Amino acid sequence: MTDLAIHTTQLPEERRRSLTGDLRTIAVNEIWRYRELLYQLTLRDIRIRYKQAVMGFGWAVFMPGLIVLAGTLVRFAMAYMGGSKVELSEIAGMAVKAIPWSFFVGAIGFATASLTGNLQLVSKIYFPREVLPLSATLAQCFDTTIGSITLAIVLPFLGVHLGFGLLWVPLLALLILMFTAATALFISCANLFFRDVKYIVQVLLTFGIFFTPVFFEPRMFGHLGGRIMLLNPLAPLLEGLRLSIVHGHNLVTPLATTAANGTSFPTWSPWYLVYSAVWAVVGLIASALIFHRAEAVFAEYV
Amino acid sequence: MTSPSIEFDGVWKKFQRGELHDSLRDLIPAMARRMIGRAPRKEELSRGEFWAVRDVSFSVKPGEALGIIGPNGAGKSTILKLLTQILTPTRGRCMIHGRAGALIEVSAGFHPDLTGRENVFLQGAIMGMRSREIARRFDEIVDFAEIEQFIDTPVKRYSSGMNARLGFAIAAHIDPDVLVIDEVLAVGDLRFQTKAFDRIKEMCTSGIPVAIVSHQLERIASLCTHALLLDRGSVVRTGTPVECIETYLRNEWTSDPAGGGTLATTIESIEMVRSGGPARSGESARFILRGSVDSSREGPRSCAIRVREMNTGKSLFAISTRECGVELPENGRFDVEIELQFNVPPGVIAVETAVWDRATHRDLARGPSVTLQLVEGIKFAGSVHMQPRMRLVAQARASGKGALADALDPRG
Predict the structure, then answer these.
(1) Closest approach of chain A CAs to the CA of B19, in angstroms?
(2) Does residue A8 lie in a domain region?
């Protein structure tokens, strides 16, 4: 035996002492040691999603495509009422934001049921339970990758010239992934204890698109409205993607716009990004800790 | 590097009857306390709670195999769940040093839509195997499960036997440092069960620490070096598998009160006449049965003995004094000498006494019993020695192909 893994069940009192100790346990003993399992479960989730599915990979493009279509419809209606024109770059912006939004919706949707849907496993076999919501999230990455590749092909036709702004994409993608993983951990854990959580999640995901700037841009709501919209931790990340990809904007530079009454107000500040990053990092740590501490009683409550 | 071992030190586990939480009003504050780690650790039970495991301690070192036996609800599976970290103890500590291989719910991780091949990798990973390792042993696993032709078929089309065989095959190829087994000895058909059992035996005798829970007592007896008898969460006794099985079965089979007092015949005692040295398989042993007859009461004037194989609880042989041609006295005390020839394999044997109904052989009252251990005597295989007589009636000459045929040919 090459690696003699020692897993120890200690007194709960002893284990509940240090936060950093817990975090290390999660990262090293649980996630890293069981990375193969994370990979296999991700593979399983991807496989079963495409087995016996007529549309196959089409689904990966279908969902964001539908969002863009719906958004375009809304924008045309708004433009008609307001007497302005819909710019091609606005549609491109929606397309850019539709991909991460459908990633978030898909990942949370699958992660919510990831613990309760694997009852047999949770109550019978030991492995770190974190891998279940995490693999649901990672499996969604596969769809998103296909969607992104399609988007990269389509964008030039929408008049977008891909430039240096793209350098921001990896950071933004990482933050979205972290925030999604944090939400997935928390919600899957909550759903194990209270089965009605999944209904709440369903409602939130259905209406979330109206509270997240996917169809819209925060500046459309004016100064205060835009700010409120950007309080949603996902909003600055989606806006950041739009600005950097569609407009090639360097996110360090603030942006301002002029309102109809002539006053100028800021629409983008790098601090929005910091705000979201704090949410992603702190959220992930907090939800990992909550999950880890609740994990001990999963088998009894499931 | 610590040598692989299992340790269970003063473990208590509390469970709750019924629904786990009655209302959010109770639950949310309790959860909040638990999250911040300040939950008051209750040492005593509150309403609806019970100890599923009560102060259980044991350890299993390399070369040892511990059998855990006991009636349903004794806490056997809870102990294995505590060992495999599915549950955490309320008090005490339990640990496994080394990579634990668990033969528990061997196909729990299967996804019905995935093929056998995909599931082997998935289940293997759930059990803590590396992909490389699984790939290396893949052919062995498929061979063992005997499902070569179906390995690329979705598992949902498997028969339940195929499913279980594949699950067992994966679990049996983990190469663990420590092995934990729960009631998986009954997998597939008879032939596969034998194969599975041999495989488990092989793993047990390879020197790694093993803990087994099973109701198949004869398997415990043949696999384990020592045993633990549980009842309602507490340890009743520890010792050799035979000792524990004996105590367990004595409690199980002779739980009825030894009637008497209302029947004509009362059995007072039975004891074995010591002849020096243990009883041997194939040899005879003598017993003295003492009792009395009260002519003023109803009931048969006869008593019976029943020989029971303790590992399985199976009754091997039963006969009454009357059937043996012994008439008990009309009234008063009696001693009966009984000689039995134990034409059965080595094991733990009990000689029980009873007063039974002559027609139905149903026990009216049970008397005392005596237990003895049969050690290996005459060599034979099977469950009964049939006192064979063999003699050579024909023999081939040293050479010549048709010699034996010639010798046997009646016309020759």
Answers:
(1) 9
(2) no
Kindly report, residue by residue over B143-183, the tens digit of the pLDDT. 999 989 999 999 999 988 888 889 889 988 888 888 888 87
Chains A, B: CB contacts within 8 A come to: 122
Contact A10 B2 (CB under 8 A): no
Average pLDDT of the residues in B325-351: 88
Q: B-chain residues within 8 Å CB-CB of A31?
A: none
Question: Is A297 in Cβ contact with B121 (below 8 Å)?
Answer: no
CB neighbours (10 Å) of residue B257?
Answer: 9
Of A4, A126, A301, the CB nearest to B1: A4
Q: Which member of A5, A17, A299 has the closest CB to residue B86?
A: A299
Fold entry, domain B5-250: Rossmann fold (3.40.50)
- Stated as kind and residue range, the H or E segment containing B346 is none
**Chain B nearest-CA residue for A52:** B113
Residue A279: inside a domain: yes
* Rounded alpha-carbon distances, angstroms, from residue A10 to A124, B83, B211: 20, 11, 19
Alpha-carbon distance of B352 to B365, in angstroms, equals: 11
Q: How far apart are CA B99 and CA B183, in angstroms?
A: 20
Residue A51 lies in a domain: yes
Cβ–Cβ gap A124/B88 under 8 Å: no
Question: Which chain A residue's Cα is nearest to B111?
Answer: A44
Residue B184 banded pLDDT, cuts 50, 70, 90? low
Q: Do A125 and B108 touch (CB under 8 A)?
A: yes
Residue in A35, A10, A17 with CA at minimum distance from that of residue A296: A10
What is the extent of the structural domain holding A115? Answer: 20-301
Q: How many domains does chain A have?
A: 1
Assigned domain for A15 exists: no
Nearest residue to B82 via CA among A29, A301, A296, A128: A296
Question: CB-CB: which of A9, A37, A193 is closest to B89?
Answer: A9
Q: Where in chain B is the domain with CATH 3.40.50.300?
A: 5-250
The architecture CATH gives domain B265-374: Distorted Sandwich (2.70)
Q: Do A5 and B85 touch (CB under 8 A)?
A: no
- Average pLDDT, integer, range B304-315: 82
pLDDT band at B35 (very low <50, low <70, confident <90, very high): low
- In this predicted structure, what is the pLDDT of residue B22? 47
